[in-house]
Write a structure and sequence with these properties.
Chain lengths: 437, 325
Amino acid sequence: MTQFDQVIHDLAPQRFNIWGKLWTGLLIAVILVGAYSYYQQLKYGLIITDMRDYASWGVYISNFVFFVAISLVGSLITAILRLSGVKWSTPLTRISEIIAVAAIIMAGLTIIIDMGRPDRLFNLFFHGRLQSPIIWDVIVITTYLVISVLLLYYPLLPDLAILKKYFAKNKWFTTWYTWLSINWTGSPIQKRLSRRSIRALSVMIIPVAFSIHTVTAWLFATTYRPGWDSTNFGPYFIAGAFVAGAGAVVAVMYVFRKAYHLENYITDYHFDNMGKLLVLLCLVYLYFNVNEYLVPAYKVTEGESAHLNSLFFGEYAAMFWLVIVGGLVVPVIALIFPQGRKPLPLFIIALIVVLGAWWKRYIIVTPTLLHPFLPIQGVPESWHEYFPTWREWSITLATLASSLLIITGLIRVLPVVPIQETLEERGIEEPIIEELK
Amino acid sequence: MAREKEIARSDNASDKNKQRRAFIDKSMKLGLAAVAGTFGVTRLIESAEGKAIPGESVELMTTDGKLVKVDQRSVEKIPEAEHVNPREGFAHRKFVMVIDLARCKNARKCQSSCNKNHYITGPNAWLKVYKMQNSEEESPYWQPTTCQHCDKPPCVKVCPVDATFKRRDGIVLIDNDRCIGCRFCMAACPYSTRVFNWGEPDQPEEIAALPNDLDYGGVPAEKGTVDKCDFCPHMIDKGKLPHCVTACPNGVFFFGDQYEDTVTNGDETYRLSELLEEKSGYRLMEELGTKPSVYYLPPKDRLQEFEKGLDNYDEFNSVEKEEKS
């Protein structure tokens, strides 16, 4: 087997083994349960959630913010690292772009799940008003989705053309790959066009990525509420988003390296570098957290103190400190040591970071709403608190499972590590047998 | 069904004389009413339309309460005054409310009348009487709170689909047929005045079957949309005061038109500017810049001790529920 064939053999999508099938089945089961809950929600309304007039936003919104956050990693790895000339991140570009596309699709669907009247979704287009940050979000998220899909697709063209030949016996795959590779021959003109397009998209996606999460932060920061009324919110959210996204990339790359035996392509060196990157991102995010909490805690205005008390010492204290210390401080300390950046420890730390990032959004959304300006009076006692019902949980878990299913599905049919770029980096030429025919 | 929007108009009789007499009668009545009531000059101008007789003059009352004679030909009708587009509201009007905290005993008649007349079925009322105390050293007081109908409404600013809107007469309303239920307005409102129909509203069938009426909040309520105090434009259209104003046994609520500088609680009428000046009126959370249309008078020289209101105080309930067997 030539070097070329070996690379393609290693990187071409593979059939799932029993674990892969079980995993897919599990995801589908979770999604079905959530779909049933959502059917109930459509039927009876948001009454099936624990949200009420004070906690008027809940786990759906924090889950939405989480998805938007995760999707930012596409721009970090494929655009920022690519443009700054970092070479080691090449094998991770496709994983991060797949994660970005899956997350941004689910962000859009999650926000629809939160709507009281999803049947009127198109009012956003018929009656949209530009001064509402929600419309800004609609505009930038759809833009981001389009650019992300293109950034996933353009680098795929040469890979699809290669796979078209590799899967010559599989009719279904060949048809699709032929159709999707739109006559890619690898001619110099095509290569130049592709290179320039990818570069242009990489530049374009950075401001759009910053916009999606800044605007998402503004959904909160444009209100008067203590805990949200902060000029720090945009950069604070973006810093947090990179942490969550980098964690997600580490988790996904670990699993698929193991499942597809890609140890020669995604090496310990990549984990080591991702570990270092994660330290940097966590530190930046911690810096923004200090800004976000210390300044109002120093001033102790009436509204802020009620909110901060509940976070520091009150009913949210356990979750708050677990997220800050367990989800940010401890990972930083663990990742300073080289052993911490080995694949398995890093994988575990990355999972903790992602979990912490999810809960972090929860405690940004909920406590603030339960500390309004006027006292909470004249409503049932249960309205003073908020904790998601099992139906909310099942719908939320289904959205998370859906994003994982999109990732799993794409990885089943697309090469996880870019083939063409790997060949180029290793200086392997494609045999020109085809041309002779 | 209390839904007719028709303002009592001048009769349609073709007889000119009859028309004129009716007109003069009406002017006199309304002129007197304006002394005691809220709606003066605009209403008069309205009825003077199309009946210009050369040389005839008409008596009108100015905003500072003086009767003046004006040639009928120089009287112009304000076109929209009769048929008001509920999205635009009345031109040349600015509705305001003054709530006198010194008079409030937490009788909660305002709330029950509002609940009943707007067919509110959820556990959260639109009008709440808060038990307030600014600091330990200050005495507690009862604070009825409606939608503040801000002139710079944060809720309207954030609505992505123009479902909640500000009319030129100052009223902030919601189009329940357009609302997508994103609840951004609820997060944006600092006065916690907005409520949501989390489930199917359990309204009487005849109300639920009615078409959506912008001028009448809660008629009907729709699942998955936001509701709130509407300042009762359906009552204003009939020349009547909002439900809370008429229901209050203590005359806490004053309603009126800022341009006419007059507010009334049905029994007493004051000049808005004088009332606010003499009694040190203020608005809630002025520092936010929302510019509410609701003014408060501080609880000075109270009608009754604060403690007596505690009998009616129910921390966890603001809507009476019929016991279902």
